[in-house]
Amino acid sequence: MKIGINISDINLPLNGNPDEIILPEKVSSRSKLFESLGFDFVTSNETKSNPFLPLSIASETTNKLDLVSSIALAFVRSPMDLAYIAWDLQRMSQGRFYMGLGSQVRGHVVRRFSSEWHPPIKRMKELISCINQIWKCWQNGKELNFNGEYYKINLMTPFFNPGPINFNFPKICLAAVNTKMASLSGDISDGVILHGFSTKKYIQKVLLPEIIIGKKYNNLKNDFMITTGGFLIVSNEDKKIQKKIEQVRSQIAFYSSTKSYRKVMEIHNWEGIADKLYRMSVVGKWEQMSKLITDNMLDEFLVVSKVGELKKNIKRKYNYANYMSLPLDLVYEIGLEETKVLLNNIKGN
Q: Positive or negative CA dihedral for 339, 171, 54, 227?
């Protein structure tokens, strides 16, 4: 199991306690620190900032960490743009970059990014094929002539060709919450980034069977990235745990109200609750929605663990995964030395 942490958080927790650890504000220093503690990878997401900028900084200040965009939005960028970004990061990191891509929902693609919307599965397959053809052009001098339904790229002059790199192609991983994207990830990508709104039952009975029949999965086997999905709370402080549980309860209520995620609810026979939550979301009853998420439902999505019991709980809940991220606030709570001890314990060192 590889253990990682997010470096794109710009609002680092600080409660005014002079004895509290303060992580470096600069991404460069923070990344170097995380590597020294024993983390295997760092992630950067696309919520309130660009996902690639922190990784570009980390690529030059670390030597061993895998660098994972988790995730970057695929359909708001051209294949050429993504190809250049990944090529640069693979060169700068000396072969440690994983480009995690997600489709996002129509509303965000169209209304937040003013981009076109097309059926995501077919488009994602074409996007990855196009990126790989661009890379083959740069690496091997193969003629660039991609003529797809959504992307048509056939111009690459020497002036704009960055030339070959001394590493393998960047790895591409796909975010998946439904069977079709899970199937696509197993067939053509290097890994799958599972959504927080996932339960172990849904992952093992619905998603994994689609992934493991894929051609790329069977080529890579244990080297195929599978993240844990779900939600994780790790703390020795009961008040903090309870506060975070209620935050997760609200998140689950929000996701449950979204029709795109209905299949997760269906496998647990929670369709009736999903319908109620959808109707409440339509009329704006957001604050009342979390009341419909019971503790039993929470247990399916969430792992709550004291620090000393984390290794046991990981084995119990995440036995299907080989990549897991720890929450940033855990480092604040237990300190740097205890974080190093915890990482060694989880990894069996």
A: negative
301, 199 in Cβ contact below 8 A?
Answer: yes
Say yes or no to pLDDT of 128 above 90. Answer: yes
DSSP H or E run through 325:
strand 323-325
Q: Does the structure show a pLDDT above 70 at 305?
A: yes
Tell me, yes or no, whether 198 and 215 share the same domain.
yes
- For 306-318, what is each residue's pLDDT tens digit? 999 999 999 999 9
Residue 205 tokens read as 């009975």
Can you give the residue range of the structural domain that contains 269?
237-304
Shared domain for 212 and 257, answered yes or no, is no
The DSSP letter of residue 227 is B
What secondary structure does DSSP assign to 111-136, as a single string?
Answer: IIT------HHHHHHHHHHHHHHHHH
**Is 316 found in the same domain as 283?**
no
* Count: domains in the chain: 2
| Separation CA 42–CA 149 (nearest Å) | 35
Phi, psi (degrees; rounded to nearest 5) at 236: -100, 0
Q: Give residue-wise pLDDT tens across range 174-198.
A: 999 999 999 999 999 999 999 999 9
- Within this chain, do residues 209 and 96 fall inside the same structural domain, yes or no? yes
pTM, to two decimals = 0.92
- Phi, psi (rounded to 5 degrees) for 192: -130, 135
Give, to the nearest 10 degrees, the angle between helix 52-61 and helix 79-93.
Answer: 20
Same domain for 210 and 292, yes or no, is no
Residue 203 · residue 268 · CB < 8 Å: no
Residues 55 and 140 in one domain: yes
Instruction: Retrieve residue 185's tokens.
Output: 């990830």
CATH number of domain containing 312: 3.20.20.30
How many residues are there in the chain?
349
